[in-house]
Design brief:
The chain is an alpha/beta fold. The protein contains 13 helices and eight strands. An eight-stranded mixed β-sheet has the order 3-2-4-1-5-6-7-8, sandwiched between helices. α2 runs antiparallel to α3 (30-42), α4 (47-63) crosses α6 (76-83) and α7 runs parallel beside α8 (137-149). 46% of the residues are buried. It binds guanosine-5'-diphosphate. Residues 103, 105-111, 142, 188, 248-249, 251-252, 274-277, 281 line the site of guanosine-5'-diphosphate. Part of the signal recognition particle protein translocation system, which is composed of SRP and FtsY.
Length: 296
């Protein structure tokens, strides 16, 4: 399947290090536990999540008197799945909502909004798009292409306009049209990162104040950027108090474990994953499926 295919590079990398580790025998000695933790860290699941996983596995090995490394590895999928923060089903699960998408330029925000608009429209929902990236004319044009493709209305203003006003207009339009899903694309780059965070805070505040529908803030991160993605996520979460994550570009990266690191550290659920550039390449996230695809 697509998730398994998409994570094949991450999985190959993990299996390669695991094989090296098991070459020295299946004993559950200190060297094995350290090697396992290191292998998880190399797979980008992050230091905190890796330590947690190994601690829980050690605990089970003792309690259940597991005979060897193979018995431990049988439990690895479940433990990796458990490091993801659960929840977020209400965000893009079919309930009426306003969803604000934030993230650095190039992470796949606009593409993701486009894919979601198409999928939701196909599912019979009444969708409206807002393009609040007034800093970059190309961003508005790009979203317009997606809007046309799925026959969805898009609200925006001229380049340089106040993004909060675009959001305000979008919500008014959504109310007039009886839309039940409002997807708003925001800027991913301004003159400085502090400017960007200030602008996004203003946008989030205006939308929260004005919207009659529940408002969710979703960060889009690019898995290929590995630990940089985690850095960005921390900064956005500090400034905006995020509700969920979407991790894109899981195809063609060996850094897929970053999804676990971010979800674990920031205590945020992953609501969708991107596994390609095509319109169908946005998938529901399932922790067990993901863990299985990551480590095989
Ligand atoms: P934005 O600047 O955050 O709005 O990013 P864009 O939506 O413009 O996407 C940047 C590039 O990433 C485009 O070329 C997209 O086609 C590509 N992209 C987005 N999501 C994915 C994905 O899941 N996999 C792959 N391989 N490419 C993606």
């Amino acid at each position: 399947d697509r998730i398994s295919d998409g994570l094949s590079r991450s999985r190959d990398k993990f299996k390669e290090s695991m094989n090296v580790l098991l070459d020295r025998g299946p004993d559950l000695d200190e060297e094995f536990w350290e090697g396992l933790e290191e292998t998880l860290i190399l797979s980008d699941v992050g230091g905190a999540a890796a330590a947690d996983i190994v601690e829980r596995l050690r605990d089970q090995a003792t309690r259940r008197a597991l005979p060897d490394a193979y018995a431990v590895l049988d439990l690895l999928n479940d433990e990796i799945a458990a490091t993801f923060t659960a929840g977020g089903e209400d965000i893009l699960g079919g309930q009426p909502a306003v969803v604000l998408f934030v993230g650095i330029n190039g992470t796949g925000k606009t593409t993701t909004v486009g894919k979601l608009a198409k999928a939701a429209t196909d599912a019979g929902r009444n969708v409206i798009l807002g393009s609040a990236d007034t800093f970059r004319a190309a961003a508005i044009e790009q979203l317009e292409v997606w809007a046309r493709r799925s026959g969805v209305e898009m609200v925006t203003r001229e380049r340089g306009a106040d993004p909060a006003s675009v959001c305000y207009d979008t919500l008014e339009r959504a109310e007039a049209e009886g839309a039940d899903l409002v997807l708003i694309d925001t800027a991913g780059r301004l003159h400085t990162s502090a400017d960007l965070m200030r602008e996004l805070q203003k946008v989030v505040n205006v939308v929260r104040k004005r919207s009659k529908l529940p408002v969710h803030t979703v960060l889009v991160i690019d898995a290929t950027t590995g630990q940089n993605g985690l850095q960005q996520a921390r900064e956005f979460n500090r400034a905006l108090d995020l509700d969920a994550l979407i991790v894109t570009k899981l195809d063609g990266t060996a850094k897929g474990g970053i999804a676990a690191a971010v979800s674990h550290e920031l205590q945020l659920p992953i609501v969708k994953i991107g596994v390609g550039e095509g319109i169908d390449d946005l998938r529901d996230f399932n922790a067990h499926e993901f863990a299985a695809a990551l480590v095989g």
